[in-house]
Amino acid sequence: METPLIKVGVMAGEEIFFTIEGNYHLEHSPYNFTGECSARKSEMGIILQCGSEKWEDTEGFKLIPSNPETGKFILHDVTIGINFHWERKEDQVFKGSLFFLLESGNLHAINALSVEDYLMSVISSEMSATSSMALLKAHAVISRSWLLAQIQKNQSLQTEHQTYHTTFRTDDELIRWYDREDHTCFDVCADDHCQRYQGITRATTPVVERAVRETSGEILAFNGLICDARFSKCCGGVTEVFENVWEPVNHPYLQKMVDNYLNPEGFSLDLHHEDSARQWILGNPEAFCNSSDKNVLGQVLNDYDQETNDFYRWKVVYSQQELTELVKNRTGIDFGMVINLVPVERGVSGRLMKLKIIGTNKTMTIGKELEIRKTLSKTHLYSSAFIVEKQAVEDGCNFILYGAGWGHGVGLCQIGAAVMGDKGYGYDEILYHYFRGAKLERRY
Ligand SMILES: [Zn+2]
Ligand SMILES: [Zn+2]
């Protein structure tokens, strides 16, 4: 099999300006392009203009580099950091082909390039150059697996047309989960929604290039199918299962797993039981991700994150008034004064899947984990693996949340994997530790 191409949706707009360096030609035609060009929506479809030459087409355009090694293009005014305080526009440089396609009335600029080139770019921008080779290779394999699974899914969605629900709401229960929705005219977008991608605007890191090259074509598979290889920052000592976080589908390679080479002593690991969860979360069990080694943490966390390395076990305190306002703002539901938070159902890692919010006006159960984390924080709580203690104060009570871990806890634990790499485990050992029963396979 040849190295697959991935189609990345970089930007959308009424009119898109770009500059071609080297020569590009229209697919299946002899027309050559170079220099400043634009694409814009027209009544019939899309108008492509380069210098004084103009083409119009209902379907769209595919511009292919005449020499894939040297051909480059620059997209102007790409918005980055959408909805973040640092949102701004910048020019970005890309290698590979450039497509202009219409989808539900929007004009999209799409970069089609080899999966391996794409991985070098995204892993260079998200991982530190000080990471161990084992950690970088493990990341390359799970990113590649996710991508190839995404390309497959995209092809099957175009033939199936299924409807898919992620929200279940009654009067006293709201259960929803958040997964990546699917794009239709490309495989992934260039934003944080899928994975941040800026083409070759910034240089790739030599160690990342090596990690990608040395694992080229390698993915994780289970029974011959590419794994949906998830990862999160810190599992908290035990990983969660897929169906407790997203849709109710069991993936045999995403199971409950102690993040260590042996079970920690003195703890019951039936973490869906309230007593065991309490002992676990208030305790300090040994685990790969139970680390405060700055050199190791710096491989996974950026500088800002390193200032807060209390993610393995953490604590948040709200006054009753604060909690009441927070829940009202975040849910849009008036619970009256919040008088209690009651765990209803926990997953295998101790993460709450359902939490009952009891107010003086209304009582409601919410889930799954991300809904709970969004409801109880201005951004999100580190995780939903927490216990609640009420502390009486003069004018009511405080709510103290004691928690464990950072993120959904499914699949690879990034801090744990960084520690394993530092201890000398190979990338295959790291992957087989987190994805039990999965196999490394070379697909091309
Ligand atoms: Zn996306
Ligand atoms: Zn972990």
Outline the structure in words.
It is a single chain. The chain is globular. It has helices at residues 115-126, 133-160, 206-214, 274-282, 294-297, 303-306, 320-331, 369-375, 414-422, 427-434; strands spanning 5-13, 15-26, 32-41, 46-50, 53-57, 60-65, 72-80, 88-95, 97-103, 106-114, 167-169, 173-176, 188-189, 218-222, 225-226, 231-232, 313-319, 338-346, 352-359, 363-367, 386-393, 396-404, 412-413, 439-442. Strands 1, 2, 3, 4, 5, 6, 7, 8, 9, 10 and 13 form an 11-stranded mixed beta sheet that branches. Helix content is 23%, strand content 34%. It has 2 domains: 5-207, no CATH class; 228-417, no CATH class. The structure holds zinc ion (2 copies).
